[in-house]
Amino acid sequence: MLKKYRVSFYLLLLCANQFLVVDAQQKSISQKVDSVLRLMTLEEKIGQLNQYNDDWTATGPVTLDNSKAEQIKKGQVGSLLNCIGTERSRNWQNIAMQSRLKIPLLFGQDVIHGFKTTFPIPLAEAASWDLDAIQLSARIAATEASASGIHWTFAPMVDIARDPRWGRVMEGAGEDPYLGSKIAYARVKGFQGNKLGDVNALMACAKHFAAYGAAIGGRDYNSVDMSDRLLWEVYLPPFKAAVDAGAATFMNSFNDINGVPATGNKYLQRDILKGKWGFKGFVVSDWGSIGEMINHGNVKNEYEAALSAITAGSDMDMESRCYKNNLAQLVKDKKILVAVIDDAVKRILKKKFELGLFDDPFKFCNAAREQKELNDPEHTKIAREVAAKSIVLLKNQNNLLPLSENLKTIAFIGPLVKALKQNKGFWDVEVPGVDSNFIVSQWEGLQNKVGANTKLLYAKGCEIEGDRKDGFAEAVEIAKQSDVVILSIGERRDMSGEAKSRSNINIPGVQEDLLKELLATGKPVVVLINAGRPLVFNYTADNAPAILYTWWLGSEAGNAIADVLFGDYNPSAKLPISFPGSVGQIPIYYSHFNTGRPATNDSNHNYNSSYTDLSIFPKYEFGYGLSYTNFQYSNLQLSKKKMKAGEQIKVSVTIANSGKYDGEEVVQLYLRDKVGSISRPVKELKDFKKIKLLAGESKTIKFIIDKEKLSFYNQQLQWVAEPGDFELMIGTSSRDIKLKDNFELIQ
Ligand code: NOJ
User: Fold this and answer.
1) Which domains occur in the chain, in start order?
2) What does pTM read for this prediction?
3) How far away, in angstroms, is 109 Cα from ligand 1 center?
4) In this predicted model, what pLDDT tens digit does every residue of 425-460 receive, in sequence order?
5) CB atoms within 10 A of CB 45
C-alpha cells in the first residue's frame, strides 16, 4: 500500500474506533437513563419536565410560589433558571438530594454575551465576522458561568432579524442566513467546549424555534406569517447549523407561525427538528409560552395547552406550570401515552448524565474554582480584543482617524462618556458578589490611553433622552479649547432587548442637536454611536467627519474604543445587518428579489419598484465597514467556466493592502443564480474570508464553488441546484462589488 494511503487507512481506523467509543458511551448512558426511568413514578417523570424561576433575578413575569423547595423534595421539579452562584445552586441541589430518587436539578441561565466578563452584545460580535473570536467569547462565558454553578445557557439566539424596530435584533447575528449559520455554529461550539461532561462545558440552547425574528411590524412576541420557502431558506439554516454543531437543547418561541404557536407546533419540533434533523437533545418552552397558547386562541385552557405542547414536542415547561398541573390527567384521560412523556424525560435525563450530574450533583459548585475563573485577567484581555473587533468604522473623512498621540487637548463629550453599566447592553448577568459596575467606562479608557501631554476635557452636554439643552454651552466651550472633539451618543442600553420594540429608532433626544452645535465650532468631531440595533442618524451620517458604531461593547468598552480611536487596533468590522435611512424602508435587506420592475437609482420613479419619497438604498449596507488602510482587489480567476453538479470551481482573488497601516479585510463572495424555477435573490452571501495584511502586503485567497453553494429550495421544497448561469461577485460589502465573473452549471 502506498504510504499516504496507509496513513489514511490508519486514520480511518482511528476515527471508526472513536465513533465506537462514543457510541458505547451513548449506549451506556441510555441504559442508565432507562434504569432511572424504570424507577420513576408518573409524578416524578412529569417533575423532570417542569422548570421554575429562582428568585435571584427575573427574566419574565413572575409567579409567586413559596413551595418550590417542597416541590423539589418531592421530585416535582427538574430544572431551575436564574439561579446563579455556587452557593445558591449548592443549596438548591442539596434540596434535590432529599428527593426519593435524588435526580439532580439542572440550572439554566441567559448567558448571552458573557457572564462576569461582559462581551459585546451578540449583534456587535457578529459585526466582527471573526468566527474564532466569537467562539472564544462564548468559551469564556461558558468557563465563567459553569464555574458559577450553571449547566446550561439559553443561547445562542440564532433568529434571523431584518427589522431593527424589533428590540431583540441585538441578541442575534443579523439578517443573513449564511453568516448567521456560521456564527450559530461557532457559538454552540464555544459554549459547549470539547464535550459535555467537561467541567467548563455549558449546554447551549438554540433559540427561538422558529422565526421569532420575523414578528410582524417588528413588535416583540407578534405573529409571524411566512412562506415555507422563506422559512427553509432564511430562518431555519442557523438552527440547522446549531444542530450540526451538537447543540444540546433548543427553545421554542412565543410567536405563532401562520396561525400555529411555535410552542404547539408539531411541524417544527417533531417533523423538522426531531424528525428530519435527528435532534437528540430536548426542547424547552419559552417563559410561560405553553400557557400563552390560550391567549393565542389556539387552545381553550391549560389542559389543552399542555396536550398541544407535549404532542408537538416541547419537552420542558418553563414557568407555565401547565405540565405540572395537567399531564397526569391527560394520561389518565388517555389523551397522551406515557411513552410521549417518557421520551421527553429521557431526553432530559440523558443531558443530566452527559453533564456528569448523576456522578456528582455538585460538580459545578466549587467555590474555589468559581473565584479563580471569575477573576482570570486573561478574560478581560480577550474581552478587550473582541470589543475592538466589533467596532464598525462607518465614516472617516480626510483620515481624521486614527487620532494622533500628539494631540494637546481632546474634548470628550456626551451622555455616554462616563456611563458605566450602559456599556454592557441588554442581557448582562447580575453575578452575586460582583459589582455591576465592573466596567471600563469610555472616559476611563481614554484616560488609560493618552499620555501626560494630552489634556482631556469633559462635558455631558445633554441626556440620552429629553429636550434639555442647558448643557450645550459648556460642551461648546470645551470643544473650542480642543484640537479634536469626541462625542459619545446613542440609545440607553435597555432601549434594545426583549420587549423593547420601537417605532422611532432615531438617535433619541437632542443628541444630534448637540452634534450640530459642536460642528459649528469648526473643530473636527468624531462620533461614537452606542446602540443595540441599527439606528437612523442621517444628520450625523451626512455631517460628522468620522463615525464609529460602537454598539454595546461590554466590560472593556472604554479600552477597546480607545484602542480603535488611536489606531492600536485598525477597525475591521462589517455590518451584519442593513442600516436603513428611514424606518419607512423597513424591512430592508440586501438579498431581495429583483421584481419585475426593478429600480436601479433614486431619481427614476417611472412605474418601477421604488419609493417616491425615499431612497431604495440603505444608509449603510450589509457587509459595509471601513478600515484605516485601503485594500485593492485584483486578478479574479475561476478554474473553469462550466461545472457539472459533482464538480467544483476554484476561485482565487488577490487582495493587496495599499495603505500605510496593517489591517484586516473581510472578503465577501456573493452569487446570483440568474434564472431559477423560483426567482433567486439579486445576490446571496455564500462565503467570506477575513484576512490580515501588513501594510504593502498582498495575498491570494481561494474559495470553492460546489453544488451546495448553488442550491436552493424549489417549489416542492427540495434542495436542488438547477443548471444555468450564475454571476459571481467579490466585494468589500454587499453593495461595493469589486470584481465579477460568470459561470455555468451544466447537466
Ligand atoms: C424569555 C426570552 O424570550 C428567552 O429568550 C429567555 O431565555 C427566557 N425568557 C428566560 O429568561
Assistant:
1) 389-585 (3.40.50.1700), 631-745 (2.60.40.10)
2) 0.96
3) 9
4) 999 999 998 887 889 999 999 999 999 999 999 999
5) 23
